């Protein structure tokens, strides 16, 4: 694909090691996990670059996006501190470039053993017979649930009123429902003792 001569830096940045390093920085800022090893982020950058190679649109979008980050950063995006880098990403969060990175990362970053080990996820259980006999409730990172007993009335409290109908019959209805002005097409009132079919 030929890029416009007006933007020769697109050719220079496309799928280079520099582009990969900028992409790694984007991933670490957009999906911050201080305890993550580099492996999941590096695999994610490679996955995004492979996906971009399969689509001219995404390849151009990725290349333009990475170039734009440099302009918005006023230099090298990789050299920004986390707060400033986050501000730059907020400026482009609605672009196709960032949407492509976000979608691809959400679906792939956490789908590997390295990430599971850091996050405390034991992995899928179907091949081990499920969680029932493997400590499905052994979470140690959630607070203990509050267990409270009900201290309300012992007997049933009815929330209905008798509503008079034409002909001297009574109907039982919820007090906040006006059965006489129902806007439901074909709605009919139910008389006391009558069962709806």
TrEMBL record:
It comes from the Bacteria. Residues 180-191 have a biased composition (Polar residues). Residues 175-197 are annotated as: Disordered. This is Gluconate 2-dehydrogenase subunit 3-like protein. The lineage of its organism: Bacteria, Bacillati, Actinomycetota, Actinomycetes, Micrococcales.
């Amino acid at each position: 694909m030929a890029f416009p001569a007006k933007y020769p830096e697109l050719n220079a940045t496309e799928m280079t090691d520099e582009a990969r390093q900028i992409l790694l920085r984007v991933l670490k800022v957009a999906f911050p996990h201080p305890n993550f090893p580099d492996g999941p982020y590096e695999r994610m950058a490679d996955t995004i670059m492979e996906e971009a190679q399969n689509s001219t649109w995404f390849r151009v979008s990725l290349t333009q996006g990475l170039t734009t980050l440099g302009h918005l950063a006023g230099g090298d995006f990789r050299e920004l501190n986390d707060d400033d880098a986050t501000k730059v990403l907020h400026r482009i969060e609605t672009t196709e470039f960032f949407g492509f990175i976000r979608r691809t990362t959400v679906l792939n970053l956490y789908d590997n053993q390295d990430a599971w080990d850091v996050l405390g996820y034991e992995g899928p259980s179907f091949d081990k017979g499920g969680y029932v006999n493997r400590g499905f409730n052994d979470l140690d990172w959630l607070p203990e649930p509050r267990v409270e007993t009900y201290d309300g009335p012992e007997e049933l409290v009815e929330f209905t009123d008798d509503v008079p109908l034409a002909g001297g019959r009574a109907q039982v209805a919820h007090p906040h429902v006006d059965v006489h002005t129902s806007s439901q097409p074909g709605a009919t009132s139910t008389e006391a003792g009558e069962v709806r079919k």
